[in-house]
Design goal:
The structure is a single chain. The chain is α+β, with helices and mostly antiparallel strands. The chain contains 17 helices and ten strands. The chain starts with 5 loop residues before the first helix and ends with a strand.
Amino acid sequence: MSINLIDLIKGQLGPETVSQTATQLGESESGISKAISALLPAVIGGFANNNTQSELFSTVKEASSSGVLSNLLQNLNGTDSVISKILSLIFGDGDKLAAITNSVSSYAGIKNESTNSLLNLVTGATAGTLGKYAVDHNLDVSYFGNLLGEQKGFLSSILPAGFSFASLGLGNWFGTMDAEAINVVPEPLQTPIADVNPVTPITEEPVVTETPKIDVTRSGTTHEIVSHNDSGGSIWKWLLPLLLLLLLGWFFWKQCNKKAEPAPVATTVDSTTIVVDSTNSAGNTVGTTRETLVVTLPSGKTLQAYKGGIEDQIVNFLKSDEYKNATEAQLKEKWFNFDNLNFEFGKAVLTPESQVQLDNLKLILAEFPDAKIRIGAYTDKKGDETVNLKLSGERANVVKSSLNSPQVLEAEGYGSKFAKVPAEATDKERESDRKTAVRFTK
């Protein structure tokens, strides 16, 4: 089964990235979103059609190790040498880049300079995601090339309406996906099929009521068609077609008067769909709008986060006197809940978007090397308590492994021990009990 990496890449280009990018470039969010939707298939297609897979493979891994995913907005200015090298590898230094920039700018209604900046952004997100996947799964260059080739099958699903690969000046670069019919003779000038492959027409003989008709056989001889009263077989020549027409009419009448049945609900599950078991204690839904901000670390590095989210809270706490003067007992009571970290339903498997917040926490810990944390995972009261305890422990350890830092001292699952909402409550009400959190220790 082909692995769809496109969803992982799209996860790096979510609404908060679009909003901050629009602000920096002075463009509308809708224009930025349209441009990204057009650039993404072009960039992924460029990776998939590259002829220097070995060099691209090593460059992509270099992009991943340089932390390109944690600093996507810093790539807008085009100063990242790794991204420039990748663009050169996948598009060359000639007309393709100019064609892409002009087409996307016209489609999205933004400036060419903004499109160039977005091209760096999308390329950075793609390179960083592919590089991380290659490193995490220990891929070699051969498997990496095959994996890129598989992504071609997913490109048509992300191409925005009203846009085509041809409009990027890439022609049939992506195989038959965007091919157009060629050398088609206009319909008025086409030769009728009957003239190309003539056959003897089959005609229905009319019922003779008056003058007998003279017919010509294939041998060229003539004979008279006698009256239908002379032979019982002649009756069926007109009666049988009439019966068939009546039967066909009855069938269509029944179909037209048949009550429409409701269409069955499809039970086929999309292999790329992930059922999420939320650990977001904030209870965010699709309709909730959260304000994003840039969190500045002591070294001057920045990271993207939600206002009031875990990154914002932790950085402010570590800078405060409250942390410096806190006792171990006080720290034990102060937990910080992840607000963008989720697991697949009933499993200890992180969803792709969770990696962004884990990477942010890694950067924060690196900025405060004396800080030590403990991880706790919790479930709601629904289900078997023993199963919940085991699942929460596995999830806590998955987060610890993902952070992979000596500053993480311990990871523990508490199951439903501290849950407050009854098991009979709605899923929305029990959401506050399902969470993963960290606390500091000395």
